[in-house]
Amino acid sequence: MKLTHFDEEGRSRMVDVTEKSDTFRVAVASGKVYMKPETLKRILDKEIEKGDVFGVARVAAIMGLKKTSDLIPMCHPLNITGADVYFKPNTEESYVEITVSVKLTGKTGVEMEALTGVSVAALTIYDMCKAIDKEMTISDIMLLSKSGGKSGEFKRGSL
Predict the structure, then answer these.
(1) Whole-number mean pLDDT of the chain?
(2) Is 157 inside a domain boundary?
(3) Domain that holds residue 139
(4) Of which family is this protein a member (predicted)?
């Protein structure tokens, strides 16, 4: 598989998508924030002094995914048409799973935007709770699926 972010001389470049057709594209990414059980309980009971952790992290994820091209040098600025952010607490293993879905109709995919959204949500959770739990761990940030475009469908774990 040829990497397209390099020119003939091996210099990095933004891929030219001028001639590509617009297609409907969706990407879904996830990640986890592990924390002390007391921290998760305080989040769920809305007892974090900085406010509603999931509410703030949801807005941060959406703001972050819209700024992906400002953070990742070769990403194109995109006109995102939809984004959803979900939090699934796991009290048995003391973590929060974050899932972000991003949609658009355009010439390039939204995988990086979904991954950025997860990352920003996780960092926001850390920021809001670090006063009580500096040992939180952000992990398992990954693309779960993507559809649309020339490369077609991808679903983690399927061949």
Answers:
(1) 93
(2) no
(3) 23-148
(4) Belongs to the MoaC family.
Supply the angle between the helices 53-66 and 111-129 in degrees, to the nearest 10.
Answer: 140
pLDDT digits (tens, 9 = 90+) for 126-140: 999 999 999 999 999
Q: Is 127 one of the annotated active-site residues of the chain?
A: yes
| Domain at 34, CATH number | 3.30.70.640
**Domains of the chain: total:** 1
129 is an annotated ligand-binding site residue = no
The answer to whether 68 and 75 have CB atoms below 8 angstroms apart is yes
Per DSSP, helices labelled H in the chain are 37-44, 53-66, 68-71, 111-129
pTM greater than 0.85: yes
Is 35 annotated among the ligand-binding residues? no
Residue 74 assigned ligand-binding role: yes
The annotation status of 76 as a binding-site residue, yes or no, is: yes
